[in-house]
Design goal:
Oligomer: homodimer
Strand content of chain A: 25-35%
Helix content of chain A: 25-40%
Distance between the termini of chain A: 51 Å
CATH topology of the largest domain in chain A: Dihydrodipicolinate Reductase, domain 2
Number of strands of chain A: 16
Chain lengths: 429, 429
């Protein structure tokens, strides 16, 4: 049986899970792959904090891991984009395949790394970079191989989904739930990476790149986080038959390009994605042959993520064993272009805070009407706040650029007392 | 670029889809795999019915396809288990990898075919045999490779799911919906393969074999179809917070064995599986590292199924190109044993038709009590049928063998007017 040496760079939550699970599953992995793996060197920040790993395998200098001749596969789990880039580059330069869980790295330097991998004739594995334990990269790359991807809708940030689920089910405020999420370890002390949609944007960039064969960077992804969503919105959405989720949305328009965006979104409450609660992730993929599919599981955590890393390690070993020629990581030649957000057409949920006087609806409706934006539903709950009250409208599809103008005009009305809350809608039609 | 010749044996619904989609996707497939495919020979029953395929590629004798030297990969899509077995055997004997969508063949002859494939050092691909377009075989074999599978719960028959969804949502009777399903092409003229759970049992056998590494045949799977489910049951279940689905249930008990069963099942209405409606399939997999996952999509149809066949063809070509040594198809050495149905413990929904006289509940409850089976919920709707009325109970977990005795005694009561409807429950705990 072939044996391959693994070099682990980074041994935090995920790295620790990989160490533990790979050792626990040695036998199962060997019998299922025909290959044995041994983690021979591990790069860590502080060797004193890894008592479970034999001291002679621990190094503080990653170069001693990557360049060790007994390390044949490099697994980068350190996070960040500067040293991680150096590590990945060095490994590929040294002719070693790389397994990474680093979505930020891919969303920033994916193209450069893929090109380097191609030049070296090496594969790049990144199953764990998106949606933790869900094998979505394998599904897109292999399971749906012959499909052109029409769209992807993903709940790809567990923290946001936990917060929105609790706001919606328990009618609690964003701040209350966020505080709880931090206490429970579902949110970081600095919540911004999750709550502001940045993490989801990294993952959306990776998924879009994979689906459309050209590398999209995170800064090309339109992002809105969930701070602007109130429990009033989750309640009103529910009354109207919708559920609010932070979605990564990727969709191809045959002529104009690909849209890639991350924002809180109203989806029909009877859609499968709406039933994805708590910290779980789910990704709906619409392929032109297969039709609608959906993949669900834990998106984070030591175990779920290490399940994905182990799958990649197995793949890397089996590929090495047969010297399988990797499919180009830098694209499958279906180059495309991104659609700017201005061009994106969606339906919208708009919540206005308006004065409780007659004629308000008329004024607002006339403005939307003058931009040719129809109103498909209006709802005014009996929830006064002093002299103001909420007015909720569901608008017909409109281009982002057109809606912004209309919205600015509505905001400027004297009867409108606060900046409107605008949430986009998806009907999966 | 390497080129491989495909021989298609069988060209009905799925075969037609494969012919059409493989030709339409030639370019995409080549760019994503580095391999080109050409369907060089096609075995059909009647050459006159395949005008879209060049006449010189059509043959009525499958041997002319399998044994043609320009055919390097054999794709078996004829169905059935006698000729299909001959075809698959002949292809493997001739040293050619086989792609099959034939769950019945695998559920009957899986072990023999896998052993033959192993002997020949050949891979056997069967992504399309379970759940159509959902790449569940790849997920189990590769995506969750390091996981021990704790359980699988699958909605793996679209016809049954369509019928149960409509019964539940539209409060229609089984017969009405079945007639409609036939009209719409969701059910065959002879519905028994689907409605009696046989098709689902084939798929459950394949999934269980894959998950536990020993081949399980369809006749070892406990099967109940959905003919016994009435719209009264779907309504009562809904009132109690449950949804009825035909599930394939596969679960490992660490010491005693693996249970594999197919039957209508009450699941909590807030579970993701409950939101899987219509002809869609979904498979929930609980792995010991990854935790709970779920995979959803179309389980049948020319396109969805051919998406899976094409993924396998790509895999076969890429494996051939690098002469990748296949992982044994005949098991990953985790041999296990099956649990008999008698030993299976479940909660149960029991609907009795009882006389409308005092003391009935007491008599029934005493019997269950004497077998140590607790009653967790009782519900008696105001729906009289002459002198009788329905009495619904949710029972605490009990072993099948014990429950059967209790149930026989309850049925024998004078106040019980018809054979009880018994549906098992799953709580996913």
């Amino acid at each position: 049986m072939k044996q391959f040496g693994i070099g682990l760079v980074g041994c935090g939550t995920v790295g620790g899970g990989v160490w533990r699970n790979l050792n626990a599953k040695r036998e199962v992995i060997a019998s299922r792959t025909g290959v044995e793996f041994d983690i021979r060197r591990v790069a860590v920040r502080d060797v004193s904090r890894h008592g479970d790993i034999p001291a002679d395998r621990l190094f503080t200098n990653w170069r001693e891991v990557v360049h060790d001749s007994r390390v044949e596969i490099v697994v980068e789990l350190m996070g960040g984009t500067s040293t991680a880039l150096e590590v990945t580059r060095a490994a590929l330069e040294a002719g070693k395949p790389v397994v990474t869980a680093n979505k930020a790295l891919l969303a920033e330097h994916g193209q450069a790394l893929a090109t380097l991998a191609d030049t070296k004739g090496l594969p790049l594995y990144f199953e764990a970079s998106v949606a933790g334990g869900i094998p979505i990269i394998k599904v897109l790359r292999e399971g749906l191989r012959a499909n052109a991807i029409r769209s992807i809708h993903g709940i790809i940030n567990g923290t946001c989904n936990y917060i929105l689920t609790r706001m919606s089910e328990q009618k609690e405020s964003f701040d209350t739930v966020l505080a709880d999420a931090k206490r429970l370890g579902y949110a970081e002390a600095d919540e911004s990476l999750d709550v502001d949609g940045i993490d989801a944007a990294h993952k959306a960039a990776v998924l879009a790149s994979l689906a459309y064969g050209f590398w999209i960077t995170a800064d090309q992804v339109y992002v809105e986080g969930i701070r602007g969503v109130t429990d009033l919105d989750t309640r009103m959405a529910s009354k109207l038959g919708y559920t609010i989720k932070l979605l990564g949305i990727i969709r191809q328009h045959s002529c104009t390009g690909v849209e890639v965006r991350v924002h809180p979104t109203l989806i029909p409450s009877n859609h499968v994605l709406a039933s994805v609660g708590g910290v779980f992730n789910a990704i709906a993929v619409d392929g032109d042959i297969v039709g609608r599919t959906l993949f669900y599981g834990r998106g984070a955590g030591a175990d779920a993520t290490s399940s994905a890393v182990l799958s990649d390690i197995c793949e890397a070993g089996m590929d090495l064993a047969c010297k399988r020629r990797p499919v180009s990581a830098s694209g499958h030649n279906l180059y495309g272009k991104l659609l700017t957000m201005d061009e994106v057409v969606t339906r919208r949920y708009v919540r206005l805070t308006v004065l409780d006087t007659p004629g308000v609806l008329g004024q607002v409706a006339s403005i939307f009407g003058s931009y040719n934006i129809g109103i498909s539903s209006v709802f005014q709950p009996e929830e006064h706040e002093g002299e103001s009250l909420p007015l909720i409208m569901l608008l017909d599809p409109a281009k982002e650029s057109v809606f912004r103008q209309a919205s600015a005009q509505v905001s400027a009305l004297e009867v409108v007392k606060a900046a409107p809350t605008v949430l986009r809608m998806e009907d999966f039609s």
